[in-house]
Amino acid sequence: MKLRFFLLVTVFLVGLDKSNSTSKNKFPDYFKFGAATASYQVEGAWNEDGKGENIWDHITHTNPTYVENEDNGDVACDSYHKYKEDVAMLKDLGVDYYRFSLSWSRILPYGVAGSPVNKLGIEYYRNLTQELLDNGIEPMVTLFHWDTPEPLQELGGWPNPEMEEHYAYYARTVFEQLGDLVKIWLTFNEPKQTCLEGYGKGVKAPAFTTTGMADYKCTHTLIKSHAKAYHIYDEEFKSKQGGRVGMVIDTVWFEPASGSEKDAEAAERAIQFTYGWYGNPIILENYPQVMIDRIDERSKQQGFAQSRLPKFSEEEVNYIKGTYDFVALNMYTANYAEWKEETDISDVGYDSDLNVHLFMDDSWEESASSWLRVVPWGLRKTVNWLSKTYNNPEIFITENGVSDRGGIDDPQRINFYREYLSNLVDAIVEDGVNVTRYTAWSLMDNFEWGSGYSEKFGLYSVDFSSPERTRTKKASADYYSQVISTRCLVDSCE
Ligand SMILES: *[C@@H]1O[C@H](CO)[C@@H](O)[C@H](O)[C@H]1NC(C)=O
Ligand SMILES: *[C@@H]1O[C@H](CO)[C@@H](O)[C@H](O)[C@H]1NC(C)=O
């Protein structure tokens, strides 16, 4: 009786000590840590030094209530003027690299192929990049993080196949102007958000709602644009510049809602409709078969003369496949996936093409973002899925992080990073998954799209009410620095 009581108390106390569940494995020596931001979310200076208008400038100026509190990115963190402070923060964190994105409209104010280059735009990015290199921080550069030049949107935006030519011109310009300094290029960030949310569901600029059609056309053009940029780099720049190119694709982890075969099938279908939509054509070959089959079949039943999912020609399939030097993942959370009966065939849309019931567990810890609950084991499962599905590629985690409503003391964020990193190091050390980089989102609080400044993801806080946009280090930044320097999540690693 006494022994049982003692054991119970011990189990209870050990259970309270969170670090007990934390991995004692050490991140390998070659493993690199970074932090990320994106141009529209931090730069501000929306119309300075010759920058053109982009779709986020346009939507926030013409339809201010589109964003919570009528916030916009006109000034944001003012990184256009304060980039040296940003670099000093990165140096203080001790990160190996900084992931930031280029504003297409700052470099090409008109956006289109053949249009003039804004020298001051290039100068800004050369300044930022040089400042990083002078401080021993490697630049990792995203070409496109959702801020399409407005003139290109007026031509139809990503569903217009002409975008491939404009993007190719932009990519070549960037490789020419910055390629001597930058060795890691990310063509697109989370294209599913650009296409599905921007053209399908309307919850991101340019806020179109033609799901099941425009989102598929957008993706088709975007994948071809990626492949073209990859080949341009490979053929014209790689031998002299020696860099690498990949695409950042996001997914949540989809956990089968039960042990049934049907729920397992639903979960696999869901990840094929998210990561696979982009990953399959680039890493393997063509769209996932389950997407091709389901959308062909539903389109036929709906009376469309051809599938709503555009087809790649055989030549295109071969041009696109293999256009990656690494696999990149943005991952934050998980959903349960449950098989469901086919919905009304007259419903045209991505969700009904997918037809899986997705939900979150009420017991998962909440964040400030409704879509994001804390599910650390989802990261280990996702990287294992990538490794298995895509034949053990090198994987970069290009974003991972959590939101709150603000404050310098942020134990929830510390806990989030500890537990996700714990699952990641176990995936590397125990499961043999080849993950070589981890990027915290975000370096600092910034413009969180439709949520404005209300959801905060930063390791540093930014005072958006002050013209100085004063940055202050959070407790999580100290924690992240410590992890980077010790490469270990507990007091002492094995
Ligand atoms: C780039 O740096 C130089 C030297 O500090 C400065 O004079 C110039 O204004 C900067 N340009 C931009 C666009 O930030
Ligand atoms: C990870 O992938 C890279 C690139 O293919 C390779 O050089 C490296 O040896 C791999 N590392 C491990 C631990 O498999």
List the defining traits of the structure above.
alpha/beta; TIM Barrel; 3-stranded mixed sheet; 43% helix
Give, in spatial order, the strands making up the sheet with the most strands. 1-2-3-4-5-7-12-13
Q: Shape from CA axes?
A: globular
The major beta sheet can be summarized as: 8 strands, parallel, barrel
Q: Which small molecules are bound?
A: 2-acetamido-2-deoxy-beta-D-glucopyranose
Provide the number of structural domains. 1
Distance between the termini: 36 Å
Helix content: 40-55%
CATH superfamily: Glycosidases
Cα-atom radius of gyration: 22 Å
**Number of extended strands:** 15
Name of the CATH architecture:
Alpha-Beta Barrel
Determine the CATH topology: TIM Barrel
Output mean pLDDT: 96
Low-confidence stretches: 5-18
| CATH first level | Alpha Beta
Q: Which structural class is indicated by helix and strand composition?
A: alpha/beta
**Tally of alpha and pi helices:** 17
Beta strand %: 5-15%
InterPro entries: GH, GH_1_N_CS, Glyco_hydro_1, Glyco_hydro_1_AS
GO molecular function: beta-glucosidase activity
Keywords: Glycoprotein, Glycosidase, Hydrolase, Signal
Subunit structure: Homodimer.
